[in-house]
Write a structure and sequence with these properties.
Structural class of chain B: mainly alpha
Radius of gyration of chain A: 20 Å
Strand content of chain B: under 5%
Number of domains of chain A: 1
Oligomer: heterodimer
Number of helices of chain B: 2
Number of domains of chain B: 1
Shape of chain B: rod-shaped
Order of helices and strands of chain B: HH
Helix content of chain B: over 70%
Mean pLDDT of chain B: 93
Largest sheet of chain B: none
Largest interface: A-B, 41 and 30 residues
CATH topology of chain A: Four Helix Bundle (Hemerythrin (Met), subunit A)
Shape of chain A: globular
Distance between the termini of chain A: 35 Å
Number of strands of chain B: 0
CATH architecture of chain A: Up-down Bundle
Helix content of chain A: over 70%
CATH class of chain A: Mainly Alpha
Low-confidence stretches of chain B: none
């Protein structure tokens, strides 16, 4: 079993596997997006308090969730890379960062677009918003730090430490609405309790979350294949690839 | 079905600027990311081919 998993720690094996998986993720992601947007914009009812403005939720919550999940994924790959000294781990961490940064930005952007009509403010220094802004800076910091280091092994190591230390921010974002008095609302969805929103809204939100998840994995796999080409270029298997002729 | 007409849909109950401002920026950034990633792979493949020519 471990032998089976470790086989895919080889860039050559993972390059091929990722290439096979990407089209499936694109297909699934597209269907999920269409279904989520359809239900969210055409089926889900108007909100009693927020009217139609609440529909931003179908982008804001998935983007926010992905921004947090991706950083935790970066931390996981970082931990694996430091433990097993696998080059692919550092490559995957780097492949995830730009997508995570984009989702963190979108979380802030769509949040501001939602906050202005509902709270009367584009921005407040509330605990959740501030910690999400810090997450965005942590993504940019990872990208800047790793871009500045030429030696791949040192680059991966520095990035790994940055990701692991920075990941403490993710539970802070999650618990911020419980630990502090926040303007940002508390959790409407939980693993243990019934959700406090209309079921069509919940379904659309979950479909869009899964869609963003499929997108993130597809894009990260696509990006890591490019990173593998760049770092393993002198390997015989890369030189022999049909796309490299 | 919530909407009686397309213009009602685009107006989003008065929240058009905020809702469409979110939708447009989201899909624009994701589309740019996809194009960026496709372009980067193309450049990398060109580079790999060039490296082989250099070493031959």
């Amino acid at each position: 079993m471990m032998g089976f998993l470790f086989r895919f720690a080889s860039p050559q094996a993972f390059y091929r596997l990722a290439g096979q998986i990407i089209p499936w993720l694109v297909g699934i992601g597209t269907l999920l997006t269409l279904a989520g947007l359809w239900i969210g914009f055409f089926i889900a009812p108007t909100d009693a308090q927020q009217g139609e403005g609440y529909r931003i939720i179908f982008l804001h919550v998935p983007a926010s969730w992905m921004s947090m999940i991706i950083f935790m994924a970066m931390a996981l790959w970082s931990f694996l890379g430091l433990t097993f000294k696998t080059r692919l781990s550092g490559m995957m961490t780097s492949a995830l960062a730009p997508t995570g940064a984009i989702f963190a930005f979108l979380s802030l952007w769509t949040g501001a677009m939602w906050g202005k009509p509902m709270w009367g403010a584009w921005w407040v220094w509330d605990a959740r918003l501030t910690s999400e802004l810090i997450l965005f800076f942590l993504y940019l910091g990872y990208i800047a730090l790793t871009s500045a280091i030429e030696n791949p092994a040192r680059r991966d190591k520095a990035g790994s430490i940055w990701s692991l230390v920075g990941s403490i921010n993710v539970p802070i974002i999650y618990f911020s609405v419980i630990w502090w008095n926040t303007l940002h609302q508390g959790a409407s969805v939980s693993v243990t309790k019934a959700p406090s929103m209309a079921h069509q809204m919940l379904i659309a939100m979950l479909l869009m979350s899964l869609a963003f998840w499929a997108y993130s994995i597809a894009i990260a796999f696509y990006r890591v294949r490019t990173i593998i080409l760049q770092r393993e270029y002198d390997a015989h298997w890369v030189q022999s690839l049909p796309e490299a002729q | 079905m919530n909407w009686n007409s397309w213009s009602e849909f685009f107006l989003m109950g008065g929240y058009a600027f905020y809702v469409w401002g979110s939708v447009i920026v989201t899909f624009a950034l994701l589309a740019i990311e996809v194009l960026w990633v496709l372009n980067a792979r193309g450049s990398a493949l060109e580079w790999v081919k060039a490296q082989r020519s250099i070493s031959e």
